What we know:
This protein is α+β, with helices and mostly antiparallel strands. The chain has 11 helices and 9 strands. This is Exonuclease V. Belongs to the EXO5 family. Pfam families: Exo5 (PF09810).
Amino acid sequence: MADSRSGLPPFNDDDNTHEGFPNIPVEIVSDEEMALIEAAIAAAVSTARSSTSAIHSPSCSSQSLFNTRSIRSITLLSKRGISSSQPDIEDVGKIAITQKKIKVNESLLQRFIRNRALAVTDITRMEWCEKQMELSLLSGVRKKTKAMEAGIARHAMLEAEVVKKVKVQVKSDEDRWALKLLNFIFGVKQLVLEGLTRELPVMGLVDGVWIAGVIDEIQMLEINASRIAMLIDTKTRVRDTIPAEPQRRNGKLQLMCYKFLLDSLISDGFSIKQFFNFFSLNPHSTLSKEIADSTTSFGFTAKTLDDVIRYYMNCCSMLPPTHNQLLLRYESQKDQSIIVEDEFAYDHGWLNSQLETLLQVWHGQREPECTPQEERWKCRHCQFASDCPTNANLNASQKPK
Length: 401
C-alpha cells in the first residue's frame, strides 16, 4: 500500500493484473519491444569514444520546484554539470573481451569485469536471462537493431533538450573520475536548488562488488513541509501497449538498484581507500587545468582527485532521504506521449534477494540458468537462441527465430 502520509496517490503493485491502469491492450513482446530491453542499456552509452570529455552547460532557463507537484507533469530544467563523453559511470561496467588466456575456474567478474564497476544494467541483463548474458560475454558481440538505434536516438534527443556539451581534454583516469564525481556534485546542487535533476551517477559496494549506474531523473517533492527525493525512470516503447510483467519486473529491479545505491551514499558513503585501491587511482595525481578550474563554479577548489572526492562525500551527506515510492514512465517512441506510469513501492527484501541470486552467477558460485519455461517467448528474439542449451533438442526448423 502507498504511504498515506506521502501525499501521493495510491497505486496498485500487483504484477499479475493491470488494475488501475488505463484500458490499454497488453501484449507479450514483439521483435521491436525485445530490442528495446537492450536499447535501454545502450541509451546511456555515448556513441563518441574520443579522448575528450564534455562539460554540460545550461540550454534552457531553470526555475524553482519547491512545491508539491504532480509527477505526471514534470517541467524540463537545465541540466548543468560536468560529465565525460567517455563511457559514463554506468558504462564502466560494460564488457571488454580480451585475447588473454582465461583460466577455466575464473568467475565472470574476474574474466570480464576485472578492476571495473559492474553496471546496474549488467545486473538487469542478467535478470532478463542469465544464459543470454553469459553467451553475450563469451561472444563479445551484441546485435544493434533498428529499434535499439531508435531508442538511442530518442535518449540523445532528450539529453540535447536539457544539456549543452563543451569538450575538455581528459589526460588521465583520475581526470575521468573527477568529471564523473563533479557531475554528481552539480546534479545534487541542481536537485536541492531547483527541484529536479537528470542523469545522476551513483555507485557503491554490494557484496564486495562495485556497482555503478546513472539515475534517469530525480524530482524533489515537498510533503508536509519536508522535502523528499523521488526517483523516476523513462522507458520508450515502439507500440502503445502496457509492457509485459517480465519487462515491468526488470524495470523495477533497475530503479530499486538506483535507490539502494543512492540511499547508501546518503547514509554511509563508501570507503575512499577501497575506491582508490580497486580502480587503481592515485588520489594525489594533479588534475588537468581545465578540470581544476571548473571546480570553482561548484564553490570549492580542487587540485587532485582526493580533493574532489572529499567534497563529493560531503554532498552525499547533504542529500535528503529518497521516497519509498518509485516511478517507471513508459512513453511512445512515435510521439513521446506517455503510455502509462507505473508507481510501485521499494521492496528492500525483494531487491536483496534478487541481488544475492544474480551476484552468485557473477561470482561463479553457480552456473547461469536459462530463462524459466513460462518466459521462453524471450528466446524467439534472442540472437543466441541457436547456441542455447534450452533449444538443444530442437531441430533447425523448430528453433526460435
